[in-house]
Design goal:
Radius of gyration: 24 Å
Shape: globular
Largest sheet: 7 strands, mixed
Number of helices: 9
Structural class: alpha+beta
Strand content: 25-35%
Helix content: 10-25%
Number of strands: 24
Number of domains: 4
Strand order of the largest sheet: 3-2-1-15-18-17-16
Length: 425
Amino acid sequence: MNTCVITKIEYDGKDYRALYIFDESRHAIEILPEQVPYCGLMENVYVGRIEKMSDYPKACFVRIDAEKSVYLPLDDSSKIHYVDKKSNGSKPHQGDLILVKVKKDEVRSKDAVGDSEISISSYHLECYLEQGSSSDCLHVGVSRKLSPEERKRLTDLFASGFSSTTTYAYRLVIRSNADGIDGEVLLREAEALFVKMDKLMESAHIAIAPQLLWKAPSPIEARALHFRRGEVGRVVTDDPALWKVLNESNCFIVKKDKKTSIRDDETVLEYYTDPYPLSMLYSLLSELENALKKTVWLSSGASLVIEATEAMYVIDVNSSHRKSGSAERYGTNGKNGDPALQANLELVPEIARQIRLRNLTGMILVDFMNMKTPEAGDLLLKMLRRETKSDPISVHVVDITGLGIVEITRKKQNPSLKQMLTGTI
């Protein structure tokens, strides 16, 4: 089972809190750093003042504090939640006070990007603010990743077992990780979420705009709070502030003792108090430095060269120094089969690991060795899809070209590991 380690490190003269995930072989498969103190705006909810409208493209700029504005795209389907509408008509105008949620952090000279859809989330649920103020009917949506039987159970649960009265209209979305969770746990979690949303809305109507209404968890807190079921078996941290956030959440519901809590899927949260630093115990700085290197050397003698351009990432497979491996492991014959296929297949797990470890997103091209037959290419694509299936970010293995170049796309979320630490691609 994977292990998650969260602690503070220093890199290039700056202090970071970092989340590492290690697989069963103790290889790092994910690194998420955030600078200390964390000043990001992602997922925060504000009451802001529209200070400028734009017709092309249709958007507005919303002041969220004395120094910062967010760019809010608008279209005909945009549902604006007004706190104080200074203008006549239904369309937004300069001076209106509205609710806005930050969906993308500011980058260099570019403003942060906002969203008019307001929501806050817990471990199993996400609560959205709907238009109007009637709470007579609760709209509930259930993840389509769940089985039809589980979707029905959860829908019936909230249709019959939920009696909370809220001041505002909300829409509740039940996440896929609610699969099999006890109904009473979900009902209590929903009640707590609605209380938070009610407080947010009450604060909005007495706030002096611009003002922060909801401070979202940091990226590391959000990642640790929303691990998929079975994704990690153990979370270890020596950070007292993070321990408090996780231990007081609805995630770790069984308190074993003062240093250990257990989640509903038996993931264990441990508070590390040994004087020997966690960063040295797991060689975190060494793992980080390796993840930033251009070339990755494998024990077989083969290597990967990973480079970034403005448009894409390119991974070049170099097997000139590779030792012979086990062809039978991949269903190929090393003597009479395709040696290029064998070499490519041996590198696939490491390529999948490096993509996730470095958080490479967007378009990724992998230059494999040319293989003899189309069937070999199909086998390579099949294994790539299998190895990237465990990635928490959506990965699409598109196709392989006649030159043996595999096209991959990975959903863009956070910047790459190198961008987060150095500011460069």
